[in-house]
Amino acid sequence: MPTTARKRASTPRSKNGCVTCKIRRLKCGEEKPSCLRCIKSGWHCDGYEHVPKMPSAGAMGLAPIRSRSLSMSPSTSPTPSQSTPFAVPHLDDQEAAYFQIFFKDVAPQFQDYLLFWDYAMKESKSSYSIRHGLVALGALSKSAKRSPSNHYRVDLTQGTHRETALEQYQKALQSLRESIGGADQSHTVRTTLISCLILFCFENFLGHGGFSLQHITWARHILSTSVPPKTHPSSAIEGGEGEDIVMSGFYLMDLQALCLLGADETRTYFKFDQRNPIVPVPLPAKILTLDEAKTARNILVWNGYRTAYQTDFYQYGPKEAIPSSAVEMRDYFVRQIYSLHEQIDLLLLENKRDLHLHPLSRPEAIKVYTTTLLIRLAMSLQAPQTTSDVLLPEFEYLLLMARRALEYEAEGCQLIQVYCVEIRTLNILHLVATRCREPSIRRQAIALLLAVHRRESMYDSILAGKVGQWMMEIEEEGVDENGDIPEHARVWGECVDLELHQRKAKVKCRQNVLGGGWIWRETQISW
User: Fold this and answer.
1) DSSP-assigned letter for residue 389
2) What angle (nearest 5°) sits at the alpha carbon of residue 274, between those of residues 273 and 280?
3) Starting at the edge strand that comes first in sequence, how are the strands of the sheet with 454-456 ordered?
4) Per-residue pLDDT tens for 32-52?
5) pTM, 2 dp
6) How far is the CA of 115 from the CAs of 239, 249, 271, 473, in angstroms?
């Protein structure tokens, strides 16, 4: 994203171009059925059936919106609800309907961001870019078929909804560019961050990972060059003030990008307010219920991932530069997780499985978040890669939970090429595919990723599966006579650089070498 607003050079545009090029204000070659510009850019060409501007939903006399509709069919034009969350100024009837659709149908699916969306709604009253970004998300959600498990088939339905979504996205993006460098620095930083995160979600919905990453990178740049917030994200757990909630939303999305795409020595990180350092919260001496276990887990996961995020850059520098305090904090959280899991296992002995619940909502899934955190922490701060060999029970557990979730969601549904706004299984399988060295477990995770083209937030199963497969093939070149992968043959620190206009990525990772040190390995992946 450019740092200053600038006028675009005038270019001739065809009046008969495709919908996508007209919305993006680009010259269209008018090739049919899909124009070459869209094909080369990796965009979905929406064709040449220009739909006249839709009249207001109220004038069309449509039925009221049903809350959280589970219909598999694309809905017709949105209808304003009789009881809107609150009145948003400067929106016409159609825009207001899409705005409401987002908060009724889409926002509740972002379970980790509910406070953020509530705050974005309030800020939308005074921010053009936030307001129209939310409208864009609402319209985009209506352009796709939605299943009972909240999967979207994004590319199957074209028409007014998608065209409106792209128009609203362009409005939000242009307003964001023009607002940068405003007089009210504090307000500008806050609204810029919210807008970037909304546009991040929009591009994820379309499957444009490179563009979504640009929005996160720009938000991180804004934070690094502005006055840091007075408080820190953890207070958002208890419903802190606006700045806390915005920082929390950004941190979670940037952490997602870090876990998926990795980092190199040039990556920047969001710096938490140092006046509010991480204060470890001891576990209760005895946890009596699963609800108590969930509360303890949530606090542990928040502080543990914050520690992993803040110390990630040590992974790529000299080992002697790692402070002992960072190692001690990591080891503390690892011990806490093991202790929590022991208490949870005792509680699970007294609980019956409810097979009607989604597998990730069942009691036995309570350890998923802490298990993924355990693996990431244990293998951080330049720990030997053979550390993964003692974590086989954790890898087996994650593989089992992911497989159950996919099988449950596949019952009666076609899950090829679907999108979920929340992360459910792909982060789990990606972690197993890239960190586990037990051949059977690893190959099963990779096979699951490649079997279904599924996207969850920023994750793409095909990309994740191909990255895991490439890393496995490199390591298997150095298998010893016992069939094991020695430390000097293992790879780590993968970094994925997404192309903007095509589904391609340059992937590199570090491979240890015999005698110490490491070398870069690189490849190109398309999907």
Assistant:
1) G
2) 100
3) 145-146, 152-153, 418-420, 454-456, 459-460
4) 767 777 665 555 566 665 433
5) 0.81
6) 7, 9, 21, 43
